[in-house]
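thought: fold this chain, then report.
action: predict
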Amino acid sequence: MKILLHICCGPCSIHPLKTLRAEAFDVMGYFYRNNIHPYQECLKREETLKTYAQQVEFRVIYQEGYDLEGFLRNMVFRETERCRLCYHERLTAAARVAQKGRFDFFTSTLLYSKFQQHDLIRTLGEAIGKDVGVPFYYSDFRTGWKEGIAESRRLDMYRQQYCGCIYSEKERFYKPNPKGSLPHEGIGSEINVQ
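observation:
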């Protein structure tokens, strides 16, 4: 049985790949990149995955191009729904690749992260699978969360600190000062913005 594994990053692929191989699946990966910002971050994640894939003899399809503008157009004025829209975009792309490659199933490393909306991913994946004609394979890969982290550290893999999009990057790193001043103020600066 052939299964296509949508991949967010190298570290997130460790446990799902191990699990699927243990279940006797012939696994191929699919790295989707339009949602990973900025571009240098995308390249870091892709390079990390390429190195890991080579180490474990894992075949991966790498999405061509980098449609940042298209991704952002889909999110503008719908930022509160961005995760649902992004999941849909990535899972649909994976399902279409799976259909074209005549895979028996498709799934996603999104199911590995304890920070993602697990039930929504499953619901979208199953609906997209029905629509495209390739079943979505559900597995709660979160059971291997600690194991995957430990292995990625052992392999000295690049581990990103946010989901991928520029919005999640902002949420992860931008912490506004509760007094209303800009975050860079206070280091040798007495300027306040009114």
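thought: worth noting. Strands lie at 2-7, 26-31, 60-62, 105-108.
final: tokens above.
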